[in-house]
Every structure is written in structure tokens, then in C-alpha cells.
Amino acid sequence: MVNPSLRRAPQNETEDMRKNVAADAGPGLRQAGPSAVINVGAGVHGIRKAVPSLVVVLAALVLWEVLARSGTLPERWSPSASSVFVTLAQQVVTPSFWLAVGETLEGWAVGLGLATLIAVPLGLVVGSVPLLYHALRVPIEVLRPVPSVALVPLAILIFGLGLSTKVFLVVFAASWPLLLQTIYGVQDVDPEAMDTMRSFGVGRLRRLVVVTLPSASPYVATGLRLSSSVALILAVTAELVVGAPGLGSQITAAENGNSTATVYALIVATGALGWALSAAIRVAERRTLSWHPAYRKPKAA
């Protein structure tokens, strides 16, 4: 018959080994154990979510390459994907490319900043005053669908050619998503919270700062993300149509020079720039509004 203490010996030895490893690792690793597992799990989950998109992009590039190499797509207006990316790599190392990127970003940033300064306060006021909202609803719905490109002759007449025209078009187009999202956010504020603040004698301006703006901030952030894409589109469009310096004017110059691969390479660069800006704004949005319930991750049971 086996001694019970001998049967428990391996288990006790294992527990001693675990304690020794934990002691050698230090208190920081022992405390970070669960969070490290959660971070690793979140990273794996993020990679799994990105895999389908990467597969689709790679499949599209392969299809593009095959169709171009086989002659299905005429080479004169559709070069192969590999030649486009080679041309893009050649462009990236030139100072003129980064100068054009900086000029496009300048119009994007100035226009988006002015649109934010105009649309967000106006949306807070319009959304907070029902009479003002009903009075301006029809003018907003009439002006919002007006294409910004249709204002190019007016912008050239007033501002001439250059950065001012680009900024004007960006401000006009980027203001609408921000304005509408801010109005929707103000109207979605919890009425009980507003009634509570009124019952305590809190003034209108303080209610706007303490209750309305924090509650509407996710709507404003969404509007900012949408307006960012619109601002980049209008900045490049102004460069294409008006000839303002930037990536758009570089695309026009490449087209006039019959450099199709360069045209495609600059278009790809513009798309990558838009994706990078959207991703950066999304990260900033999550970090800035991490205190808001809408951005808090549910705790595991």
C-alpha cells in the first residue's frame, strides 16, 4: 500500500516550483498576469478582425496584376499593380512628393479646424433652442446637398487661386456633417438630467457645458471623423480643379505628362493618406472619450 504522503509529493513539488518561479519573476509580473493575458487576447482578436480585410485587398491586387499582365486591361490606361507600387516607392523618396503631401494636409487641417470652430458651437446653439432649430431646418436641408465643386467659380472670384479657395471649399463641405451630428447629439441629451440641473437652479450656459456637451461628444466625434474624409476629398478636388498645390496638382501634372503609373501611384497615396488620417482620428477619439460610457469596454463576468 502506497503512503499517502508519497502520492501528494509531486503535487507539493509542483506548487513549490510555481512559487519559486513567481518569486523570481518579481511582484510586477505576478500583478500583471491577468492584464497581460487580456492584452494578448485583445491583440489576437484585433489581428483576426483585420485578416478578412487584408485577404480582400491582396486578392484585389492579385486580380489587378493578372488582368493587366494578361492584356485584359489595356496598358495605356491601366498599368499593373506591381508597376504602380514601384512608381509609388520611387515617388516616396522624392522631396516634391512630401511637399505635395504637406500642402494637401495644410488645406485639410486649416479647413477642418475652421469647420469645427463654426459648426460645433452653431450646432450646440441650434440643437438647444427648438425655435431656432425649426427656423433653420429648411435652409440647412437646402444648402447641405449643394456640391462644393459648384462653388469653385465663386471661390475663384472671391479668393483667387491658391490656399484660400481650397480652404473655403473644405470648410463648406466639412461643416455639414459636424453641424448635423452636433444637433443630433444635443437633441439626444437625457431630459431627466437637464430637468435635474434646472431644479438645482443651474443656468443655461453651465448646463450646456456640464451636461449637453459631454453627452453629445460621441456625436461630435463621429461628425469630426466624417468631416475629415470630406475635407481631404475637397482638398484634393480643389487641387485638381483649381490647380492649387498639393497631391491633386501632382496628379494633374502626371496626367498631362502621360505618366499613367504615376497617376495611379498618387491616387493610391491619397487613399493611404485618407486611411491614416481616419485611423489617427479614431484612436484620438477613443483615448479622449475613454471616460464616456459609450467608449467603455464591458467588463468580463
Tally of individual domains: 2
CATH top level of the largest domain is Mainly Alpha
What's the gyration radius in Å?
28 Å
Distance between the termini: 45 Å
* CATH fold descriptor of the largest domain: MetI-like fold
CATH architecture of the largest domain: Orthogonal Bundle
SS field, number of helical segments:
11
Low-confidence regions: 1-40
Structural class of the secondary structure composition?
Answer: mainly alpha
Describe what this molecule looks like in 3D.
The chain has 301 residues and is mostly helical. It has 2 domains: 4-69, no CATH class; 81-295, MetI-like (MetI-like fold), CATH 1.10.3720. Helix content is 81%, strand content 0%. The protein has 11 helices and no strands. The protein has helices at 4-25, 27-69, 81-92, 95-128, 130-143, 152-159, 163-187, 191-199, 204-241, 247-256, 260-288. The chain is globular and about 75 Å long. It starts with a helix and ends in a 13-residue tail after the last helix.
What can be said about this structure in brief?
By secondary structure, the chain is mainly α.
